[in-house]
Amino acid sequence: MDGESKPGLAMTANIYTIIAAIAQLAAIAVGLRLQARTISTEDTTVQALIGVPNIAYSLSFQPVPTIITSKAATRGGNSLGLTAADGNLFNLLLTVSWDTQADDALIDQQAKALFDQSETMAKQMGLYNEYLYLNYAAPWQDPISGCDAAVKAQLQAVSKKYDPRGVFQTQVPGGFKVFT
Question: Where are its TM segments located (predicted)?
Fold first, then answer.
């Protein structure tokens, strides 16, 4: 898109979805105080974005209760190593849409600031978990780094088995790579 809206056409460019279960977009143990502090931090973020034309902004807390993670264990487990032992968690999902590419850097900066501050609060409160929900991780996040060594080795073994020439690791742009 050229960043300009055309007369008579509705346009939403740059749908930007990030999940950060508060960290580099990491999942965090549920804590009402943490949620309240995150909402307060988000309010500051929103204030910095008031001048962005046609912005739509949503912050969601998505629960990941142990009832879900315990069921995964009976079906082979979570491919990124999340287990019921991690406790009740939540993902923090930020969804923002706006009209022009001129605002990309500001929105990216504010999103990063929100997640950095939320991660710091989670660590201070003893609620931090490195797990990142892979499907919603932002390009500046690394959900693979939140995996322990055994999980990363398993991901690499699966990659070697089903993609022995490394096409998806070396020739396909984007995505998160397991050999970095």
Answer: 15-34
- The 3-state DSSP class for residue 17 equals strand
- Amino acid found at 148: D
Tell me how far the alpha carbon of residue 9 is from its chain's centroid: 31
Sign (positive or negative) of CA dihedral 146, 152, 154, 160:
positive
Could you give the number of structural domains in the chain?
2
Say which amino acid occupies 179: F
Q: Say yes or no: 75 and 110 in one domain.
A: yes
**pTM, whole model, 2 decimals?**
0.70
CA 151 remoteness from chain centre: 19
- Hey, what are 40's tokens? 């307060």
Please report how many Cα atoms fall inside a 13 Å half-sphere around the Cα of residue 130, on the Cβ side.
Answer: 9
Instruction: Say if residues 132 and 21 touch (Cβ distance below 8 Å).
Output: yes
Long-range pairs, 154-158, Cβ under 8 A, ≥24: 154/79, 155/79, 155/80
Q: Identify whether the C-beta of residue 132 lies closer than 8 Å to the C-beta of residue 141.
A: yes
pLDDT reading at 82 higher than 90 = no
Name the residue range of residue 41's domain.
13-141
Question: Is 20 within 8 Å of 14 (Cβ atoms)?
Answer: no
